[in-house]
Design brief:
- The complex is a heterodimer.
- Chain A is mostly beta strands.
- Chain A is about 0% helix and about 55% strand.
- Chain A has strands at about 5, 10-15, 20-25, 30-40, 45-50, 55-60, 60-65, 70-75, 85-95, 100, 105-110.
- In chain A, the strands form 2 sheets. In chain A, strands 2, 4, 5, 9, 10 and 11 form a 6-stranded mixed sheet that branches. In chain A, strands 1-3-8-7-6 form a 5-stranded antiparallel sheet, with no helix packed on it.
- The termini of chain A are far apart.
- Chain B has no helices and 11 strands.
- Chain B has strands spanning about 5, 10-15, 20-25, 30-35, 45-50, 55, 65-70, 75-80, 85-95, 105, 110-114.
- Classes of the chains: A mainly beta, B mainly beta.
- At the A-B interface, β4, β5, β9 and β10 of A face β4, β5, β9 and β10 of B.
Chain lengths: ~110, ~110
């Protein structure tokens, strides 16, 4: 059974700092890994999808890496801004994209 | 292209009642998955519908049931509501059941059971 862990549970940084969020998974036989952003009480916004054959994906100030062999993914946020404050979740599908296992998220606060 | 929509946004029910939540999938998507997200936790998979048939269920009791319609929209029904059913209910659509597909989520329905 796949288990997904995100550490730390919460992170507070000053504006402008670069930061890394971590996601670990126990079963390395994955299809892809998806990073989401969730604002309080809202739905999930897809940030990046890394296929199992890829090592990293980039979108603007975000860069996600994937190391299947070690069961780890990182989300790097460059030059953080207060608008980046949110909870970031990673999800790993089982054999089916719609049956994903999620971590509990890292809640990021970027202070002006 | 229309994204995933859910209704209602918020709902308050009392213990023992029944509730129906609705989800419209993104255009071109034939697969809808439902998740329950308790406060401070990641979403938990409830079940999935693919081409109007249930295609897998998570660890949820039978009082959680669903439907998918020919236009691929979906309903989640919960009978005999319990206090622990209070959560954010999310639906996600994708273009198929492959593990390689990307999921797109709706804004969620916040259910409060009193």
């Amino acid at each position: 059974k796949q288990e997904v862990t995100q550490i730390p549970a919460a992170l507070s940084v000053p504006e402008g700092e670069n930061l890394v969020l971590n996601c670990s998974f126990t079963d390395s036989a994955i299809y892809n890994l998806q990073w989401f952003r969730q604002d309080p009480g809202k739905g999930l916004t897809s940030l990046l999808l890394i296929q199992s054959s890829q090592r990293e994906q980039t979108s603007g100030r975000l860069n996600a890496s994937l190391d299947k062999s070690s069961g780890r993914s990182t989300l790097y946020i460059a030059a953080s801004q207060p608008g980046d404050s949110a909870t970031y979740l990673c999800a790993v599908p089982n054999t089916n994209a719609g049956k994903s296992t999620f971590g509990d998220g890292t809640t990021l606060t970027v202070k002006p | 292209e229309t994204g995933v929509t859910q209704s209602p946004t918020h709902l308050i029910k009392t213990r023992g009642q029944q509730v129906t939540l609705r989800c419209s999938s993104q255009s071109g998507h034939n697969t809808v998955s439902w998740y329950q997200q308790a406060l401070g936790q990641g979403p938990q998979f409830i079940f999935q519908y693919y081409r109007e048939e249930e295609n897998g269920r998570g660890n949820f009791p039978p009082r959680f049931s669903g439907l998918q319609f020919p236009n691929y929209s979906s309903e989640l029904n919960v009978n005999a509501l319990e206090l622990d059913d209070s959560a954010l209910y999310l639906c996600a659509s994708s273009s198929g059941t492959s593990g390689y597909n990307e999921q797109f989520f709706g804004p969620g329905t916040r259910l409060t059971v009193l």
